[in-house]
Amino acid sequence: MQSTSSIPESLTQTDGIPDHDLGPAPLDVSVITPIYNEEESIPALVERLFPVLDSLGCSYEVIAVNDGSSDNSQKILEQYASEQPHLKVVEFRRNAGQTAAMMAGIDYSRGKVIITIDADLQNDPADIPRLLEKLDEGHDVVSGWRKNRKDAKIRRNFVSRVANRIISKISGVELRDYGCTLKAYRREVLKGMRLYGEMHRFVPIYASWMGADVVEMEVAHHARAFGQSKYGLNRIFKVILDLIVIKFFSKYLVKPIYVFGGTAAMFFLCAVLAFFYMIFLKLAFGTSMIQTPLPILSAMMFMLSVVTLLMGILAEILVRTYFESQNRLPYSVRKTVNT
Fold this sequence. Notes:
Blueprint (H helix, E strand, L loop, with lengths): L26 E9 L6 H13 L5 E7 L6 H11 L3 E5 L6 H11 L2 E6 L11 H9 L4 E5 L7 H19 L11 E4 H4 L12 H7 L4 E5 L15 H19 L4 H29 L8 H32 L14
Parallel strand pairs: 1-2, 1-4, 2-3, 5-7
Antiparallel strand pairs: 4-6, 5-6
C-alpha cells in the first residue's frame, strides 16, 4: 500500500459523529482498539503496535477508544498521544461496551482499511501486515482465527467452539472464530453499518449477507499478560439474542409482515383446531364445553393471531417510514456498467 496523504491533526470534537467529508484526505489504514481498564497493557501495546505500522510504509492512525475506564487508562493514553501524533484517543463518558467502542472507532476513523485489535495483546500486532496482504488478494473482510487459543480450555475455548458452530449454522457464514477481535475490513463494507448490543463480532456475517467477500486467516494468540478477562459466560446469552436480531434484519427487514403474518397464521390455526376439537368432544362424547380449557384456548389463540397481525402491519408502516425518512434504498449496488 502506498502513502496517499499526510497524517491529519488530532480530532477535537467532543460530541457527535465527526464529518470526515469536510476533513483532510483519507488515510490508508486505521487501527481501532477498545480500551477498558487496560492501564498495564497500554505501554506494551504502544511498544509493539507502532513499529509494525511504521514498517508498512503507508499513512495510518491508531484510534484508542477508552470505554469509560475507571483506572488510569485515559491518563496514560493522553500521555502517549502527546508524543505520538498517529495516536487518536476517544473517551466515553461511561462504559458502553465493546460494540459501542468499535462503532465509535469506525465513526472517527479515516482509513481506507479498518483493522480492529484487542488492547490486551492477546492479538499479535505482527499479524497486521498479513491481514493487509490477504485483503490485497481481493477479499473485502479478513477475519482472524485463533487456532491455538491460549485461554481456559473449558470455560472459554470449548464454549467458544460450540457457540461458533451454532452461529455458523444459523447465519450460513462458515467461520471458526467469530470472537477474534483481530479483523481487517475495506471501508466500503462498513459504510452505513450501525452496531448495537454484542453485534461487533457479527460484522463479517452482515458483510457477507451484503455480498462482501469474507475470508478467515489463522492468527497468533497469546495468553493474557495483565489483568483479567472482561467477558463472562452471560455473554453467550446476549450473543445468541443479537444473532437472532441480525438474522431477522437480514431476511425480514424490508418485509416484516412475513414474520408477523406467519406467526399470526399459526395462532389462528391453533384457534381453529382447538375450536373444532371442542365441537368434536361435544358431539362424540357429550363433553360440556365448560369442562375443558378449549374454549379459552381457542379464544386466546384467535386474539393472539389478530394482535400479531396488527403488529406486522405496524412494523410495515415503520419500515416504510424508516426508508423514506432516511432516503435509503432496500438494495445495495456493487457496481454499474454504462449507466
